[in-house]
Structures are given as structure tokens and as C-alpha cells.
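Sample 1 of the test manifest.
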Amino acid sequence: MEDEVRVILRDAAAEPDRDAADRFTPAASSKPRAATPIKDGPRILLIIGGGIAAYKSLDLIRRLQERGALLRCILTAAAQHFVTPLAAGALVGERVFTDLFDPQSEFDVGHIRLARDTDLVVVAPATADLLAKMAGGHSDDLATAVLLATDRPILIAPAMNPRMWAARGTTRNLAQLTADGVCVVGPNAGEMAERGETGLGRMAEPPEIAAAAESILRRGAALAGKRIIVTSGPTHEPIDPVRYIANRSSGKQGHAIAAAAAAAGADVVVISGPVNLPDPPGVTVIRVETAQQMFEAAEAALPADAAIFAAAVADWRSESESARKIKKQPGRTPTLKLTENPDILSSVAHRTSGRPRLVVGFAAETDDVIANAQAKRIKKGCDWIVANDVSAESGVMGGDMNSVHLVTGSGVESWPPQGKDQVARALIERIATALDEAKR
Ligand code: CTP
């Protein structure tokens, strides 16, 4: 392996115009490709972890450059036992970053800029240790500090011994990372570096990783130029200054959809009821309390290409709101008279002018989930309904998982149980495709 790197470096120095990657994969040399990275191509930060597969990451640099990417590279301390900063730097075309406390790179670029001035972070190989640190939110070296600080998509290519891959700790860490929205490519099955060891744990091949990176970057722009409105969270309907009618919605699904739409390049307005969540990055947040306020904010946020109504809007409010706290009086139980709230989804979906091209509602059901959702789609006049079972046993209300059925005019798709972030990304991908098709 070291010999291989030496040859690449020697050849790169001798023939600066010629592409060293050609010698990694001879077949690639005959393919047409962009030898020089496009000046405004996507920026990728490659973090090389410390595993034997690190040598393949040198090939990965070239595969990504072939696709027009501009690369920066971080080597962990462990990675430097397998590849040198000089080898990686020669391929990247600039010095690589290795040290969180290196004053020169901190003043020059700095770990926060490394984390932000990129469109995608690729971790290859992602060792078991690096996965554990990422899942735990550690930041004790440059690689982990950047991974913690970045708000860009992250793609990991795990590589480790099959037993380490199958270990409960790794499974737990991986579940955490996918729930956090980290994308994973591989590992593949095959022979390990250790003689006689085979199984699942080989790092995905560089062309596979490059293809995964490309698809994430393409997805990143799927909603560029589109305006999306999302409603999220519960509404609170006041009874008096201290009491209100509410529901158990956490806003997690709506906020995840807003974040996924923004990550896909959309201009996103989320109209949120009272939630205990951070604002989704890159999104305009309009905070409201009542259904009436949410209705007015949604109307004011139009026009939009798509509107997604994920809020659990209270159907009723108290007919009158007492200006003073209603006092308890012995023997007298107050009666609450309710009046209906505006139906925001139905009102937007039935608009004859200024209707978004795609109107998506949610159906929170405890019984006959699909049948009720189908009826709701017709009644509310929306294009799609995302139906979910919100019975107490499902754990959906307030939980991180969701199991939904997508009800459209052409049928019902039942998606497997998955994290709310994953549901959000899948829905956004579908919305991007639908908006694209509607344009044609
Ligand atoms: N919705 C809305 N405005 C309301 C009530 C509901 O925009 N006043 C939207 C929700 O955001 C969701 C969809 O309508 O997208 C369905 O909400 P859901 O609570 O399931 O249905 P309801 O219309 O309230 O009917 P029911 O409670 O009888 O099932």
C-alpha cells in the first residue's frame, strides 16, 4: 500500500497535468471525465479515519474530483498511521488539516469554517471509534469538533472488523446517527484486511461512496427556488389567562419536514404552535399560539409551491376567553362552551386562486387509519394525506419514530417504521419529484 502511495506521489510530481487516479482504477482512464475540479463545484470535506481502508480514501479523493467536487481533507491522528498528510494533500491539491490546536490552521481557516464552508461532509473510513464519538457528540479532536459543529449533510462509510460492526455498541451508535440524519453507505461484505477474516465490514468502494455523495448533493438542490409552507406543533386555545386546550403534539415531525425542505434548498416558512424544540436551521419560523393565528399566518405566507400541514390544530376553542382566572366555587363546575376553529388545511386546499400546487395534510387517527385518511383527503380537498396511527400504543405523539401511510389520488403506500427525520426526508424527496413532474 505504501508503495502504491509512493508511486502516485512520484508520478503526480513528475507529471502534474496527469491524473494520478488513473492508476488506482485503470478502467477509469478511458472514461470521459472532468479532470480539473469545476471552480464552483460542490465543496466536500473528506474526513479520513484511522483504518486500513484509509488507503482507499486516496482513490475516493479522485473519484469525488472527477465529479467536479472541490475537496478539503482532515486526517485523524489514527488515519496518519495509514496515510500521510503529504499523500492526501498531494491529491487534494492543498494542505490537509490534522490538528484542532494548530494555530496556523485555526487562524487561517478554523474548525468552524471547515464545518460550515462545505456542502457535504464525508467520513471514510468511519471507524467504530469515530462512529461512537459522533453518536456521543464528542469533540476532542479536529475531526469530531468539525462533525459536531457542522450543519451540513454527513455521509459516513463505515469500515471495521465484522465483529466490531455486529457489536451491540456499534448497532446502537449507528441507530443514533441515522436518527440524527447521518447518511450511511456500506459497509460491504467480503474479505477483511486481517488474513482469513471475511464478513460485513469492508468499506464501500470509492465509486459507490462518490455516487452516494453525488446523490445527497443532488437531493440537496431538489427544492431550490421553491417556497414551502409547513405548519407544525399543537395549538393552544385559551380558556382564561392560565388555562388552555391543547394536545400532545410535539412538533417533531413538522419541524423535521421544515428542516428537510430547507436542506433540499427550499425557501421554508414554518408556522409553529408552542413547541419545545430548537428552530429548524435555515427556516423562517413564525410562532403562533392559537388555530386562528395559525390560519392567519398561513394565509399571509402564501403563495407557495407546496404547503404541508403537519400541525395538530385544535378543532375547537372556548367560545369566550375569560379575561380573569376562573375561580373554583364549591358545588359549581363551570361548563365550557366550544366553537369550531377554522380548518386551515381545508381552506388553503379549496382556494380557487393562489392554491399551492401541492397541498399535503396529515391525518392523526387512532382507528381505521387508512380508510379515515382516504375520506379526509377527499373532504379536505388536499392532494396527499400522510396518515399516522396516534393511538397511545403507537408512541407516535411526542416520540421520535413514525409509521406512516402516504395516501394520494393514485393509492396508498405504507412506509416502514422509521425516525421522524427519515419520514421527513422521504416526504420531501417525493414532494420534489411531484413538483418537478407538475412543471413538465
Ligand atoms: N387541520 C387544519 N386545521 C384544523 C384542523 C386540522 O389545518 N382546524 C389539518 C391538520 O394540520 C392535518 C389535517 O388537517 O393536516 C387533519 O387533521 P386531523 O386532526 O387528523 O383531522 P381533523 O380535521 O381534526 O378531523 P378529526 O379530528 O375529526 O379526525
